[in-house]
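Forum > Structural Biology > Help requests

Title: Can anyone predict the 3D structure of Sugar ABC transporter substrate-binding protein?

Hi all, first post here. I have the sequence for Sugar ABC transporter substrate-binding protein but no way to get a structure on my laptop. I'd be grateful if someone could post the structure tokens.
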Amino acid sequence: MKKLAAMLAGVALAMPIAAAAQDAAGTTKKDSYRFLIVPKVVHPWFDKVNDGAQMAAAALKAQTGAEIEIVYSAPQTADVVQQVQIVESAISTRPDGIAIDLLDPSGNRGSLEAAQSQDIPLVIFDSVPPEGMQIPYIGSDFCEQAKIAARRLVEVLGGEGEVAIMMGVPTAPNHSIRAECHREVFAEHPGIKVVAEGIDNDSIETAQQQAAAIMQANPGLKGWVASDAAGPIGIGQAIVEAGKQGQVTLVGLDNLPEMLDMIRSGVADSSSASQPELQGYWSVMLLWAQATGAPVPGYLDTGNAFLTKDNLGN
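Reply #1:
Sure, ran it for you. Structure tokens for Sugar ABC transporter substrate-binding protein below:
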């Protein structure tokens, strides 16, 4: 009897442990998941984000057997109203998570709060959360990325010359942070003068038009930096069209194929690049982790790379 009593006591002690194991973080399981990826705008950089998201979906299916659907939905223009409409429409379909690159934190806040009120997991990529909102976010150090580019331009110009900044979408947190950090670097060098700032709204065509107009109005311009991935491509096109290769130095941003081609051909000196594929991959991984009840980090840094003709290869 004593042995039986001891065994029963052992079972009784084990039962709460077993129950706790069943409720352990990250153990909620489904046969299928549907995640929404919402970029700022239709853009090649975000195509790379989507590539990364699809890689994560394939990895999760291979490892867990679950069906993972990635719904990629981009606004046609960098319009926060369109972006909010996409998110609000998605909320009604109860996705298992939404990853979004914010166009305007104040404009996006309401739709993010609506998703949170329905316990829909959120991740912000290539941006930062609206003030006071606890949402996991993924990206690189936007300020450091900009400073790498601005310092390089100062170095190439020998600390002297007129420069211009392409700002991207001024309300977008990552773009505004980069623009401000470009200014901070240039302000440290008395010989550098910022003579113009363009706004391209993440459009290559608009960046080309803005750059062409700025160079025409400032014939002594010696260098360019940008705050978005579209900006340097449009700037490079304007430099070529104006016949100013070798006269105007471009230090670009990110790693789109056009940007890499301009470095190889000498239109651009270099680029300070984030890694969009990693941002897409880890956005899905963090959404999936939240959907399973697992804890996730508040911030995941995917890092920056400095690209030159020497380290790109052919």
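Residues 1-22 have pLDDT under 50 and may be disordered. The two ends are 80 Å apart (CA to CA).
Shout if anything looks off.
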